[in-house]
Amino acid sequence: MSKFDIPNALRLEDAPSGLVRAVISTPAAEADVYLQGAHVTHWVPRGQRPVLFVSSKSLFAPGKAIRGGVPIIFPWFGSRGDGRHGPAHGFARNTEWAIEDTKLRNDGNVEITFSLAPNDATRGFGYADFHVRFRVTVGSELEMHLETRNDAKESLTYEEALHTYFAIADIHHASISGLEGTAYIDKTDGFKRKKLGSEPVRITKETDQVHLSTKATCVVRDVVWNRRIIVDKSGSDSTVVWNPWIEKTRGMSDMAPGDWKEMICVETANAADNAIHLSPGASHKLTATIRLE
């Protein structure tokens, strides 16, 4: 038994893939969180369908990003710029995090806190003086807090996201409200800058939109399953909407051909124009809280 286990609430176990995960159960919900990437892959309030989407073809292999759930993007979003080397979306989601603490709260919710510190790999990418802490609270809501501290003597600029994949019945009958009127970067159209109209976002083709300077709550409306997924956030000035659609999914080895129809990513982020600039010794906290209605 691990020192972080909580009887009847949290246990650490070796998954069949060779990765280690925390299996959490509360009176209100259940969840799985992998140490690699501090990656939440499963959260289900009692009596509900799963809220997070994970591809049936996801690899769950050491050093490989998990396709679905809530990947943590840090310290760059998308491809690394200026011709520098590094994995897409940074190194945090492929790195094993350390568990700092676990707690059973008085309200019955379970907290698990992870940390990511510099190692030889991050230093090779030029990131030697930072500390990231990620706290997940599992209950009738899923709360996620991502805090980054700059331990360097010079400023730190980085991008980040909680790249959340939501499970939906059918992308043709889903919409996202809360982003109306925002400016966004359309990554599927040469990174052109555009402005969203007054209607909710509806997905009809490959979509990869970085909505800028928005702090708004987003609502994923799933008509078929008759539910709304609410995404509240703080410390986040960007929201990313992504769906690979048909052709791109076919080219992804860790996605099944029909996966595009059953998922939508609504990502709590600070990216592009909204990258974070931390002075020496400063820290920044990003939070996302997910609930069903």
Summarize this structure briefly.
The protein is mainly beta and 293 residues long. 4% of the residues lie in helices and 42% in strands.
Which descriptor suits the 3D outline? globular
Radius of gyration: 18 Å
* Average pLDDT level: 97
Number of helical elements: 2
Q: Residue share in helices?
A: under 10%
Give the tally of β-strands.
Answer: 22
- What characterizes the major β-sheet? 8 strands, antiparallel
Beta-strand content bin: 35-45%
Class based on secondary structure composition and strand pairing: mainly beta
Q: Point out poorly predicted stretches.
A: none
End-to-end Cα distance, whole Å, is 37 Å
| SSE sequence, one letter per element | EEEEEEEHEEEEEEEEEEEEHEEE
How would you describe this structure to a colleague?
It is a single chain. This protein is mostly beta strands. The protein is 4% helix and 42% strand. The protein is built from two helices and 22 strands. It has helices spanning 120-124, 245-250, and strands spanning 10-14, 20-25, 29-34, 39-45, 72-73, 98-104, 110-116, 130-138, 142-150, 156-158, 160-162, 165-167, 174-177, 183-186, 192-195, 207-211, 218-222, 227-234, 238-243, 263-270, 276-278, 283-292. The strands form four sheets. Strands 5, 11, 12, 14, 15, 16, 19 and 20 form an eight-stranded antiparallel beta sheet that branches. Strands 6-7-8-9-22-18-17-13 form an eight-stranded antiparallel beta sheet, with no helix packed on it. The protein starts with 9 loop residues before the first strand and ends with a strand. The mean pLDDT is 97.
